[in-house]
TrEMBL record:
PANTHER family: 2-AMINO-3-CARBOXYLMUCONATE-6-SEMIALDEHYDE DECARBOXYLASE (PTHR21240), ISO-OROTATE DECARBOXYLASE (EUROFUNG) (PTHR21240:SF28). The lineage of its organism: Bacteria, Bacillati, Actinomycetota, Actinomycetes, Kitasatosporales. This is Amidohydrolase family protein. Pfam families: Amidohydro_2 (PF04909). Residues 8-333 form the Amidohydrolase-related domain. Keywords: Lyase. It comes from the Bacteria.
Length: 336
C-alpha cells in the first residue's frame, strides 16, 4: 500500500448468509421475493443466479476479497452489505434481529483485515423510529456508517419528516450514509432487457437525491456525510432542469438555494461507465466530491476501477483525489 496515498474503493459489497438464513421462510419474505422477480423479469433472473453464484467467494471470503483487491490495485475497500439484505418488508421484531446480525456480520468480515476493510451497516428504514438505534448499533460495532435505499415501502420517501431524528444523529456522529437503491418504483415497465437496473437504479438515485434537496433536508443538516452510488444517477447531468424549476416554480422552492449548489455538499462514487459522464460529474460536483467506486464484485460494476478512472483523462491532482484522497478524508483514514 502506498502509505501516502492509498487507493480506496467505496462501493464494494459483502453477502451475509446469516441474514438470509434468519429471514428465510418468514411472513413477507416470499412476497418480497416475488415482487422483485416481477420487477426484474424472468430473463434477468436466469442470469442473476449464476452470476451471483460465481461471485460467492469474493462476496463472503475475506482472503479471496483481498486477493481480488490486490489484482485491481485497490488498497482499501468500504464494504457494504448487498442491497438484497435490506428486507424493508420486515416487522419491527424481525428488523431488530436482522439489522443487528447484519451489522455484526459485516464488522466480523472486515475484522479479518482491519487496515484494508472498513464496513457499513444497515438500518430498518421502514421503521423510522428504530433508525437512530440501529445507526448507533452499527457505530458501536466499529462500522463507519450505514447503507440506505432510495425509499422505503409504502411510498415513504427520504424527505419524510419521520426521518429527521435519523438525519440529525447521522450528522452529529459523522456517520457515512451510503445511498444505494434496490428495486425501482417504475415496476413492470422495466421488466425487460435488465431495464430494472440500467434505467431503474439511476432513476431511483435521482429521485431520492431530489427529495433530500428540494425538501430542505440538506439545509437543516448541512453536515450530513451522504455518499450516492452510481454517480448520483441521472441527477448530476440533468441538474440544470432542477435549477430552472427552482427559479420559476414557487412549488419547487422549499430548499434555500439552487439545487445544483447541493451537489457540492454531497459525495458520489465514480461508477458511471462513461469517462465523459465522469468528467461532467466532477465538473458539477467538484473533484473533491467524487470517490472511486467499483460495485465489487457484481457484473454491473467494473473489474478495473482504476482503468475506468484513467479513461476520464483527469488532471493529476483530480485523479489522485478521486483515486483515494477524497475517501481518505471522508472516511477519516490514517495516511501512515
Amino acid at each position: 500500500m502506498n502509505q501516502y496515498s492509498p487507493t480506496v474503493d467505496v462501493h464494494a459489497h459483502v453477502l451475509l448468509p446469516e441474514v438470509d438464513a434468519l429471514v428465510a421462510g418468514l411472513p413477507g419474505h416470499a412476497e418480497a421475493g416475488q415482487l422483485d422477480a416481477r420487477r426484474n423479469g424472468p430473463a434477468a433472473l436466469a442470469v442473476n443466479g449464476p452470476m451471483v453464484g460465481e461471485r460467492i467467494p469474493r462476496l463472503t471470503d475475506p482472503a479471496v476479497r483481498l486477493a481480488a483487491m490486490d489484482a485491481q490495485g485497490v488498497d482499501i475497500q468500504l464494504v457494504s452489505p448487498s442491497p438484497s439484505h435490506y428486507h424493508y418488508w420486515a416487522d419491527e421484531e424481525t428488523a431488530e434481529k436482522f439489522h443487528r446480525l447484519a451489522n455484526e456480520a459485516t464488522a466480523a468480515h472486515c475484522s479479518a483485515a482491519p487496515a484494508r476493510l472498513h464496513g457499513l451497516g444497515l438500518v430498518p428504514m421502514q421503521h423510522p423510529e428504530m433508525a437512530v438505534r440501529a445507526l448507533e448499533h452499527a457505530l458501536d460495532q466499529g462500522l463507519l456508517g450505514v447503507e440506505i435505499s432510495s425509499h422505503a415501502p409504502g411510498r415513504r420517501e427520504l424527505s419524510d419528516p419521520a426521518y429527521e431524528p435519523f438525519w440529525a444523529r447521522a450528522e452529529e456522529s459523522g456517520a457515512i450514509l451510503f445511498l444505494h437503491p434496490f428495486g425501482c418504483t417504475l415496476g413492470d415497465r422495466l421488466d425487460h432487457w435488465y431495464l430494472s437496473n440500467t434505467v431503474g437504479q439511476p432513476a431511483e438515485n435521482a429521485v431520492a437525491l431530489s427529495h433530500l434537496i428540494f425538501s430542505g433536508v440538506l439545509d437543516r443538516h448541512p453536515g450530513l456525510k451522504l455518499l450516492a452510488a452510481h454517480g448520483g444517477g441521472y441527477l448530476p447531468t440533468h441538474i440544470g432542469r432542477a435549477d430552472h424549476a427552482w427559479r420559476v416554480r414557487p412549488d419547487a422552492q422549499d430548499c434555500a438555494h439552487a439545487p445544483s449548489s447541493y451537489l457540492k455538499r454531497l459525495h458520489f462514487d465514480s461508477l458511471v461507465h462513461d469517462p465523459y459522464v465522469l468528467r461532467e460529474l466532477i465538473r458539477v460536483a467538484g473533484a473533491d466530491r467524487v470517490l472511486l467506486g467499483s460495485d465489487f464484485p457484481f457484473d454491473m460494476g467494473t473489474e478495473d476501477p482504476l482503468g475506468a478512472l484513467r479513461a476520464a483523462r483527469l488532471p493529476e491532482a483530480d485523479f489522485d483525489a478521486v483515486r483515494g484522497g477524497n475517501a481518505t478524508a471522508l472516511l477519516r483514514l490514517r495516511k501512515d
